[in-house]
Write a structure and sequence with these properties.
CATH topology of the largest domain: Tumour Suppressor Smad4
Pfam families: CERK_C (PF19280), DAGK_cat (PF00781), DER1 (PF04511), PH_CERK (PF25382)
Subcellular location: Membrane
Bound molecules: adenosine-5'-triphosphate
Strand content: 15-25%
Mean pLDDT: 75
CATH architecture of the largest domain: Sandwich
Radius of gyration: 31 Å
CATH class of the largest domain: Mainly Beta
Keywords: Membrane, Transmembrane, Transmembrane helix
Number of helices: 30
Structural class: alpha+beta
Protein name: DAGKc domain-containing protein
Largest sheet: 15 strands, mixed
Number of domains: 3
Membrane topology: Multi-pass membrane protein
Distance between the termini: 38 Å
Shape: globular
Low-confidence stretches: 1-76, 111-131, 155-163, 320-325, 333-342, 346-364, 488-510, 525-530, 661-675, 898-937
Helix content: 25-40%
């Protein structure tokens, strides 16, 4: 809005100034006037409520009383409102609130905007979303009465800026969940604070909402939480601390145990009685896939009773033993210490249950699997976190925590892996393990063995070990027999088939990936739909013998940051199938090609002659000659003879399913989806990158139109010091060149890499992102004082700093340089430097950008990770600035909510655990410090 228009608007009767004055008058009346007592106010609040017995407030109360239990009339008749009333919504204004059985909705009161006008604007100024705002009860996890305090009324989206005003009243907060606009799988907490002068009114709403919440019976009330402090980069405890407040807000009781050694959680799970375990609604693992596997085995090994996997008639591993050992009876075969001595897995080394213990477990209440009630949960903190990515769509601890609290549920297939080995009595005895994601032999086993030697490296150990094992290029002689399964089509739901027919998908491109409420996974209840072929018939088995580089059995797609589509892109969470991937011996270059396809989004790693992919329910494996080891969910299992079978939906997980593809988040989703108009594209940009790009563009446009000369913007210290031309300290950063190819390229960097950074690693961290720019500018200014490093404009270096930080934050993102070379994101600055060199651009600005970018990354990420202090923490004034700016959102903002909106999540998302009066300082501690997304990248 132009300045004249602003003036006109300020003094118009509908203006914000008018409104602010009105609110101020109302507030002053509210604060100063006395009056008679209110009949329904309780004693404690009586005096305060009495002060509010002004004509305006009486009118409001009258209106509210009239409206309670009144049918809205214009809404759908099937859902009559339970309550309606006008409230003040913090940072929005007076709203008409409606509670229905399925949720809360509100509309701005007519006083803010005439009814006939578009509610999204008032005199052309956007004030709220076009749509009425609402939250479903299924998305609400807590509601609390928070007594007396400030409620901000804001006309514009910039709270506190120009027109914001606050009044004191009774308040209640509704805590719920909101989905990120750019990535629906990413969830964040959101808080709505409603205020009213009548305490009883607030309490009545709280009670009503609470009674609706009590109908959500699938939500957990009591959880057992195990934390692996050493998972991933060693931040298991910090990950839990970041989500713990929402568990207490949701009144979910948690018993938290931090493990002291590998195998601790397994032992605890294996020895806890069913009676004790049944006290909990589920068990949560805070760690990686390996830790989850440990807990899974602890629970299932002692409780899951099922026949061992079948074998081909001529290859039955049990033939040398009594024929009645065909059932896995947890009380008989738990862990055989005689055959596990040589096992590398710490879980097996430490876990021995004697028979008495095992039998005592069964004396408790019955607990069998599949189990309708008991669920597992996983809060990601590991190095790979494939299970979380496949079941929630993102690798985000907060999303996982919210899905746990809201009681989301998906069923998960589990593979039972049985190693057959001779015991000291020379009998062949079974040794059972369970896996939720993957069991792999050869390359996969070797990588995990090798990587364990370099655990100190953190997640990087997989890259190093992978390269070493790849260069070794070992193959192993083995025989694999798998049972022929009916084609996937027998299991495809009608809807899925219709969709496929509609899009005319060819056989080769048939890929129905698993999503939330997946058609394929939900075809039936727990039992597999497939008609099981008779395992005793030899013709139902297929044998493959030869030398294999690797053998993999995937239960789920195993998507992760290194393999964005996973090994088997169309594997499902609960379709009752295993995907057997046999990679026969081949030249190293071919294998590299397969691995490259695996690492590519949309790659076809299974589309090679030397790769066999079979869907099956069970298979056996026998090695001959030199042996590798099995990698079972990232844990080592030595087995010369092994059989495996899948159990459909054996366990339930607190997760809602992968709503969108993870790859879209890691790579292309970081960019806005295709916009139909330039305006839509521009509006979709996140605030910081948008503002910087706009300022740079306008600055260059001004020069182009000869409104001023670039000279007036340049950094001349002499002019700054002698003539106090202070603006030069700022303007030199906003001129990134006259309109030219170089200018376009720099603008492109801001709009591509700057936007990706803001939507990815700096998502919900607007203040941190703004600080990155300030840090860059503050570091470049003294550098520019050194004569041979000085340049007129340091904007180019600041832009290049974006490239460098991007390359560090998203090092595994694949980038394509003009269709010529494909590189990892890590190398982007150096590739750009090479391009600068070739086309003759000066290298100094880019080198300075790299230096400053590295300094920033070192001080904010590397040094704190290595145990150092976070000396480059985003200063308080930046948080304040961002709050006042009113754009974006900082999840751990230390600024109290005097003025808070969040752009990313509907403008009213607050720090978890916070309230507008910060009543509970203990909550603040959890969120103090750097707001990096834990384990996220
Ligand atoms: N307190 C502990 N000290 C040492 N090791 C532990 C402890 N608690 C659990 N472990 C073991 O650490 C191993 C790895 O843990 P986890 O899976 O959490 O991390 P990760 O290997 O980094 O992640 P991912 O499995 O996703 O690659 C597991 O095998 C688990 O048994």
């Amino acid at each position: 809005m132009g300045f004249p228009a602003l003036l006109k608007w300020m003094f118009s009767s509908d203006s914000g100034l008018y409104l602010a004055t009105k609110i101020a008058v109302l507030s002053s009346k509210v604060l100063m006037s006395g009056g008679g007592s209110v009949a329904d106010a309780d004693d404690a609040a009586g005096a305060e409520v009495a002060r509010y017995n002004t004509p305006e407030v009486s009118l409001q109360r009258k209106r509210n009383e009239d409206s309670i239990m009144r049918d809205d009339g214009d809404d759908d008749e099937e859902q009559p409102p339970i309550l309606t009333c006008s409230f003040f919504l913090d940072h929005v204004g007076e709203v008409f609130l409606t509670l229905k059985p399925d949720g809360l909705s509100w509309k701005l009161m007519d006083s803010l905007c005439n009814d006939h006008e578009d509610r999204s604007t008032c005199l052309g100024i956007p004030i709220l979303s076009k749509h009425d705002t609402s939250i479903n009860i299924s998305d609400v996890y807590a509601v609390e009465f928070i007594d007396w305090g400030l409620v901000h009324e804001t006309f514009l989206t910039n709270p506190g800026f120009l027109l914001g005003h606050a009044s004191e009243m009774y308040r209640f907060t509704v805590h719920g969940v909101t989905r990120s606009k750019s990535q629906s799988s990413l969830w964040a907490p959101v808080v709505f604070t409603f205020g009213h002068v009548d305490k009883q009114m607030c309490q009545m709403w709280v009670n009503k909402i609470n009674s609706l919440l009590s109908l959500e019976t699938d939500r957990p009330k009591n959880l057992l939480v195990y934390i692996n402090p050493g998972s991933g980069k060693g931040n298991g405890c910090r990950t839990w601390e970041s989500v713990a407040p929402i568990f207490s807000q949701a009144k979910v009781k948690t018993k938290v145990i931090v493990t002291e050694r590998a195998g601790h959680a397994f032992d605890a799970m294996a020895s806890i009685t069913n009676l004790d375990l049944n006290l909990y609604d589920g068990i949560i693992a805070v760690g990686g896939d390996g830790f989850f596997n440990e807990i899974l085995n602890g629970v299932l090994l002692t409780r899951h009773r099922a026949p061992y996997p079948p074998s081909p008639p001529d290859d039955d591993p049990t033939v040398e033993t009594e024929s009645d050992v065909l059932l896995h009876d947890p009380t008989v075969t738990i862990v055989d210490s005689t055959v596990s001595n040589d096992d590398e897995s710490p879980l097996l080394k430490t876990s021995k249950l004697d028979e008495a213990q095992a039998i005592s477990l069964n004396q408790g209440s019955e607990m069998s699997f599949p189990n309708e009630r008991f669920r597992f949960g996983l809060i990601p903190s590991g190095s790979t976190d494939a299970i979380v990515i496949c079941t929630t769509g993102v690798r985000d601890p907060m999303t996982s925590a919210l899905q746990i609290i809201l009681g989301k549920r998906v069923c998960l297939d589990i593979v039972q892996v049985v190693r057959w080995a001779k015991s000291h009595t020379s009998k062949i005895e079974p040794h059972v393990r369970y896996a939720a994601s993957f069991a792999g032999y050869g390359f996969y086993g070797d990588v995990i063995t090798e990587s364990e030697k370099y655990r100190w490296m953190g997640p990087k150990r997989y890259d190093y070990a992978g390269t070493k094992v790849f260069l070794r290029h070992r193959s192993y002689e083995a025989k694999v027999a798998y049972m022929k399964a009916e084609s996937e089509k027998t299991n495809v739901g009608a809807n899925a088939r219709r969709i496929k027919a509609f899009w005319g998908l060819s056989k080769e491109s048939e890929r129905i990936t698993c999503r939330a409420k997946c058609d394929i996974c939900n075809t039936t209840s727990v039992a597999p739909q497939i008609e099981k072929p008779d395992p005793k018939q030899k013709s139902n088995w297929v044998s493959v013998k030869g030398r294999f580089l690797s053998i993999g059995a995937a239960v789920i797609s195993c998507r992760n940051e290194k393999a964005p589509d996973g090994l088997v892109a169309d594997a499902h969470l609960s379709d009752g199938f295993l995907h057997l991937v046999l990679i026969k011996d081949c030249p190293r270059a071919f294998y590299l090609w397969h691995l490259t396809q695996l690492a590519r989004k949309g790659g076809t790693p299974l589309n090679f002659d030397f790769v066999e992919h079979h869907k099956t329910t069970t298979f056996t494996f026998t090695s001959s000659g030199e042996e590798s080891v099995w990698n079972v969910d990232g844990e080592i299992l030595k087995a010369q003879k092994l059989s495996a079978q899948v159990f459909r939906g054996l366990i339930s997980l607190f997760a809602s399913g992968p709503e969108t593809h993870f790859i879209e988040f890691i790579q292309d989703q970081l960019l806005p989806s295709t916009m139909s108009t330039p305006a839509q594209y521009y509006n979709s940009l996140p605030p910081v990158a948008k503002t910087y790009a706009t300022i740079c563009f306008v600055t260059s446009l001004g020069c182009y139109l000869q409104l001023y000369s670039p000279n007036i913007l340049a950094l001349y210290y002499v002019d700054v010091l002698k003539h106090f031309q202070i603006w030069r300290l700022i303007t030199n950063f906003i001129f990134i060149g006259s309109f030219s190819f170089t200018f376009a390229f720099r603008l492109f960097i801001i709009l591509k890499y700057g936007v990706q950074l803001e939507r990815g690693p700096f998502d919900k961290r607007t203040a941190d992102y703004v600080w990155m720019f300030f840090f860059g500018a503050f570091s470049l200014l003294p550098i520019a004082a050194i004569p041979f490093l000085w340049s007129h404009f340091m904007g180019a270096s600041l832009v290049f700093m974006i490239v460098y930080v991007w390359s560090r934050e998203l090092p595994n993102t694949r980038i394509n340089i003009q269709g010529l070379v494909e590189l990892k994101g890590f190398y982007l600055p150096w590739a750009m430097l090479a391009i600068d060199l070739v086309i003759g651009n000066p290298l100094m600005p880019s080198l300075l950008g790299i230096a400053v970018g590295h300094l920033y990354y070192f001080l904010t990420v590397l040094y704190p990770l290595a145990g150092g202090n976070d000396i480059c923490k985003t200063p308080f004034w930046v948080h304040k600035l961002v709050r006042r700016w009113g754009q974006g959102y900082q999840i751990n903002s230390p600024v109290k909510q005097e003025a808070s909106t969040g752009g990313a999540f509907q403008g009213r998302s607050y720090r978890v655990g916070g309230t507008s009066t910060a009543r509970d300082p203990s909550n603040l501690g959890v969120f103090s410090g750097r707001g990096r997304r834990l384990a996220g990248r």
